[in-house]
Amino acid sequence: MPVYHAPVADTLFVMNDVLGLERYNNLPAFAEVSPDVLEAVLGEAGRFAEDVFFPLNQSGDREGCHRAEDGSVTTPKGYREAYARFREAGWGGLSAEAAYGGQGLPHTLAAAVNEFLSSANMAFAMYPGLTRGAIAALQLHGTDEQKQLYLPKMVDGIWTGTMNLTEPHCGTDLGLLRTKAVPEGDGSYRITGQKIFISAGEHDLSDNIIHLVLARIEGSPEGVKGISLFVVPKFLPDASGEAGARNSLSCGSIEEKMGIHANATCVMNYDGATGWLVGEADKGLRAMFTMMNEARLGVGVQGLAISEIAYQNAVAYARERIQGRSLSGTKAPDKKADPIIVHPDVRRMLMTIRAINEAGRALILWTALKGDLFHLSDDAKEREAADDWMGLMTPVIKGVLTDKGFDNTVMAQQVFGGHGYIAEWGMEQYVRDARIAQIYEGANGIQALDLVGRKLALNNGRAIQAFFAEVGAFCEAHRADERMAPFTKGLKKGLNDLQAATLWLMGNAMTKPDNAGAASTDYMHLFGLVALGYMWGQMAKAANDKLAGGETSDTAFLEAKLATGRFFMDRIMPESSAHLARISSGSTSTMALDAASF
Amino acid sequence: MPVYHAPVADTLFVMNDVLGLERYNNLPAFAEVSPDVLEAVLGEAGRFAEDVFFPLNQSGDREGCHRAEDGSVTTPKGYREAYARFREAGWGGLSAEAAYGGQGLPHTLAAAVNEFLSSANMAFAMYPGLTRGAIAALQLHGTDEQKQLYLPKMVDGIWTGTMNLTEPHCGTDLGLLRTKAVPEGDGSYRITGQKIFISAGEHDLSDNIIHLVLARIEGSPEGVKGISLFVVPKFLPDASGEAGARNSLSCGSIEEKMGIHANATCVMNYDGATGWLVGEADKGLRAMFTMMNEARLGVGVQGLAISEIAYQNAVAYARERIQGRSLSGTKAPDKKADPIIVHPDVRRMLMTIRAINEAGRALILWTALKGDLFHLSDDAKEREAADDWMGLMTPVIKGVLTDKGFDNTVMAQQVFGGHGYIAEWGMEQYVRDARIAQIYEGANGIQALDLVGRKLALNNGRAIQAFFAEVGAFCEAHRADERMAPFTKGLKKGLNDLQAATLWLMGNAMTKPDNAGAASTDYMHLFGLVALGYMWGQMAKAANDKLAGGETSDTAFLEAKLATGRFFMDRIMPESSAHLARISSGSTSTMALDAASF
């Protein structure tokens, strides 16, 4: 019963009219990406998501993954076939390097495709998603031999990847990890230990699973300075590079969890498994962060993706379901009641979700473009600025878009009334699925600490100062433009609150670090409001310019865009003042109780 | 693995020190309720919840209810035995009239007991909860004969009750209902139609199930003015008043839903079932509202109850789980890391939940006491004021405490990181269970409309004016008291915002009703902040007085109470300004899009 239509038109608006991707056609990955090609690829990806991934979403949730006594894991019915079609169509290697069989297209495009796939079937999209993270880590930190051995097969998708960080007693605090690596003398290591919460840790979709595993080499220091990264394949590659002998690792169990049932979340046992070092010894955390940053942006995309499909279904229901009459007079006199979309409180919910989704999509694509520029630009200043933006926005995209994404999904479920609570309507699955995105790849509180404790002060605050200057200049540049006034006014107010909060932190967190900790989540959300508000400013400008140029046939789309942006400024941006008030209240009452008094 | 301890001490603080229940010992129900008796009853209820209901919560969620082909429904293992113990102990009749076998104790006490039972096992507590609603409706609207026939058995619990409102095509808009009632000529009616989402509609806990069913008598007007209430027992009472012949009604299926799996949510088919009118013909909605108001307060209690058990488990986990070091220096040098309760962002979550729960408990008990006074007081003015307070607070308690309750439960789950997503830890069940409370008994958007569209204007705003006067006078009376300053300052700010929002509505909603609709949810939450803030003011006063009197041995409890209240004012009350800003932005951007443009 649920519906899904990939938001191709909105994605094209951001890519063409807001980002102006054509400007970058001097860069290799962008050379072929004309607006026509973009439209064709996104259209094709949208149809693939709708036709192949989406029909398996509800059935996959119900069936889940099953582990047999031999430790093998079966994915739900239809998943093997659908994954084969995914591989054949080459979606996994969209933005991978051509040298390894990829299509070498921009990450910006891959991010959009990832949104469609995650909307259609988040649990399924995680299998290739984790592979992409493992590819990124091997590409940056692996030896040439490792790259030649693993990357072509992982880009193809015939081998998949995982990341193994968490252990029963440690997740956030990886310094505590106990998994051991003992050198064999031949360049390989024996890996022993238990990892938990390993998404896609074992399954039947691919011929081999390439585990990237954090472990401590015997004799290395305790804490985070003694952690190394290893590649530990399920089947050891033989002389010809094909999957050979079974490695001594196995899935001990799969977790019974709230959602994403179609993705196998495994306890992985390494019993003297053979692995090879990736990157330098004891520098594993750095390599892992390559995967993690890739993964965190991907999780932000999941937040948007579930919010989007939840929104679409809520809209469809609100148009169909008749109940009560409009406060401003009957709207459907031929029916016994009006469709509930006439009710302002239903509108409030739909508009809230929509306003966050459209800005979230723009923020993700804007940031993905920075990622492309960081890799491709020949201008060192541009690369630095792109890197600064990504560092700042990674925790914001992960933390804010998944928190808002979950809230939005709950709101969309609410539009259904009692039917939202019933499994067959599909909404409660979206809520259960969306919930994990706030937790994994660093719980959102950790994202907030990364932003406040690390990213703000980096390079003497260069990134945040550049952000303030950019947003401030945007407000200033369009201050006199009457069509832009609703946007610049709200954005400026949010920016002022964010700057005040930043100043407060500078003055109060050095002397009392608890002030930073107690402020962090509010600061992250305040930052998110301004970043999303800035996207609304940029989208409004693009829409106004297009309307003023009279060159468009899509007036209704652009007018709806502007109305949605005004709603954001009226209804969502005002949260900034509450965040500022909380932040500047300090940590005294937060920390007042003894642990025993709770 | 989950834990639960009934919050008896906190409940006693509210009853004895804030409400001063002893003042009312001139009223019949209160005569026996000395502080000693209160403590004994609450202690016993707490132990019963902990020992009998709680151990079946997780297993009941996993097993769920099962319908056999003959339409009979089996509750999870252990539920029949536990229900029998519940009956024997007389918990169902705690506040029921002695004339029908009840204990005649105050509703205030029953509300507290209901919190404990709902924390321990919400799905289970719903069976007697629905029976209480049905008892209330029969007591107020039934004939003497009906009361004699049904009430003693329902108070005993050997018969249970349900409410049947919703049909597939109508929930909120009951005017659309189609279930028909045809008079038989002997005073009975034949009821035909389908009802959905009927909680406890069929099960194996009781000897009979007394359905209260809304239906339209043949020939009655369309819309809400043609709805009547009927009592339709599963087994027709025989001449001796015992369960006799099977009535023509059956459970067609049970819904597969997100949570509260241990409660059977039934599709009920009435195929010419025999029923009797309750109250006047065509006046069924009024009678149903008696049940509904009772039920809405009960649902508010569920919001608090799940938030409370989620909080307790999050605290236990945060004390145990070690991860990272405190920002202000190592706190557990003997361990490899500090317990996560040292981290300000974890504290922020725990304190937020705690601050809302403690005030929510006070607000529920304060309102339940008004309910007792409305029934028992011999002062007409006091009865009127009590009724006004209840009318105003019913939607606030239902809407705000369930919205906040769900948010709190999600927050408590977040404290667990990845473990929160895994079924065995129990947290994800609390989230799934808490979700329904925002939806049933009138989705929270309907509560907001009830408050804004009905309750505010009733009797020329008498209730809201009295509330403003009471809270304003409280702030004024304690303005000069330095110990009260943190409380009166925050409360006064919230009250000002609420008054401004009320004025805005008065000026803008008459001419444009969409302004009221678009404001309603924010207004309800703004109202909730002030109501909870007022409870904090009252609790702070009681705590300060007790500390100043030096008469207490429980200084730590009282100091923690004050610290938690300060946190509320620092961190939660500031949301009021965002609500006011949203409300006064009007409905233009909310209503701007065509339905087709979504």
Mind explaining what this structure looks like?
- Two copies of one chain form a homodimer.
- By secondary structure, chain A is α+β, with helices and mostly antiparallel strands.
- Chain A contains 17 helices and eleven strands.
- In chain A, α14 packs antiparallel against α15 (513-549) and α14 (485-508) runs parallel beside α17.
- The longest helix of chain A is centred in the middle third of the chain and has 37 residues, at 284-320.
- Chain A is globular, with a radius of gyration of 24 Å.
- Chain A starts with 7 loop residues before the first helix and ends in a 14-residue tail after the last helix.
- The model of chain A has no long low-confidence stretch (mean pLDDT 97).
- Chains A and B meet through α8, α9, α10, α11 and α12 of A and α8, α9, α10, α11 and α12 of B.
Major sheet summary line of chain A: 5 strands, mixed, barrel
Oligomer status: homodimer
Q: Average pLDDT across residues of chain A?
A: 97
Report the helical percentage of chain A.
55-70%
What sequence of helices (H) and strands (E) makes up the elements of chain A? HHHEEHHHHEEEEEEEEEHHHHHHHHHH
Low-confidence stretches of chain A: none
Core attributes:
homodimer; 598 residues; alpha+beta; 5-stranded mixed β-barrel; two-stranded antiparallel sheet; 55% helix; 12% strand; globular; Acyl-CoA_dh-like_C_dom (chains A, B); flavin adenine dinucleotide binding (chains A, B)
Topology, element by element:
2 copies of one chain form a homodimer.
Chain A (H helix, E strand, L loop, with lengths): L7 H11 L16 H19 L3 H7 L2 E2 L5 E2 L4 H11 L17 H14 L1 H20 L2 H13 L2 E6 L15 E4 L4 E12 L8 E10 L10 E6 L1 E3 L5 E4 L2 E6 L10 E14 L5 H37 L23 H33 L3 H36 L11 H11 L6 H12 L6 H16 L7 H24 L4 H37 L5 H18 L2 H10 L14
Helix pairs in contact in A: 1-2, 1-9, 2-5, 5-6, 5-8, 5-9, 6-7, 6-8, 8-9, 8-10, 8-11, 9-10, 9-15, 9-16, 10-11, 10-12, 10-13, 10-15, 12-15, 13-14, 14-15, 14-16, 14-17, 15-16, 15-17
